Amino acid sequence: MIQPLSDTMPQIVTAGVTGMLVRFADRLSEPANRAALAFRAAVDAQGWDGVEETSSSLVSAFLRFDPLHLPHDDLRARLAALLKSQDWYAADLPEGRRLWRIPAVFGTDMAPQLGQAAEAAGMTELEAITSLTQARMRVQTIGFAPGQPYLGELPEAWDISRQSTLTPRVPEGAVGVAIRQLVLFSRPTPTGWQHVAQTAMRLFQPEAETPFLLRPGDQVQFTETEPGTLEQMRRDSHGGATSEPVT
Fold first, then answer.
1. How far apart are CA 197 and CA 122, in angstroms?
2. What's the pTM value of the predicted model, to 2 decimals?
3. How many CA within 13 A on the CB side of residue 79?
4. How far apart are CA 136 and CA 244, in angstroms?
5. Residues forming beta bridges with residue 139, ordered by sequence position
6. d(C-alpha 158, C-alpha 161), whole Å
7. pLDDT 10s digit of each residue in the chain, 247 long?
């Protein structure tokens, strides 16, 4: 039996003519993110004719389908039955996940907002670096830009706000922090997230067979490196990062 996080969850809602959304919460939590990832994988495993694409967000699973081949009511009934089949908030995460260890420069002029983010979290810069490199985080979702992961959750001290004004531009590979999450930016962009570290990763590689380097459910742990070493790592398509299967 599913143990929902509220009386109204999970929900099945229509998303346009060709979309269906299964929501597990109205705000991020580890159980809701786990449920979204596990449920999406279970839908994929069903192989339903008419379902053309699936994806997951922080707390939801989305299906794009052909309503002429699979009517709304039929799909809703199938989703409802699948929801009742187990407790998705405690489900196993999908198989095939990888642990990524990613070198990063913390602070310096490459990541100039480490100090203010550390202060907001009640830490020294050294304590902040220790906290951020000790954390092993889940790729909760990919979004905003191609291949861009949202990572979390961090310890409660990192429940800090986004900036009230935008940083005009952070580079590709920047690591931003806010609201107990890290974002690893796949493209140069303006942002309200505080720029605390810099990697050499190319998260979006359109020329590759698998364009997105990281996948939802993967784990990430950052390792501290020096600016000169990071520059040398730019020659590597993975930016010096290594990965291994999650066991």
1. 18
2. 0.93
3. 28
4. 14
5. 151
6. 9
7. 444 445 689 999 999 999 999 999 999 999 999 999 999 999 999 999 999 999 999 999 999 999 999 999 999 999 999 999 999 999 999 999 999 999 999 999 999 999 999 999 999 999 999 999 999 999 999 999 999 999 999 999 999 999 999 999 999 999 999 999 999 999 999 999 999 999 999 999 999 898 999 999 999 999 999 999 999 999 998 999 999 999 7
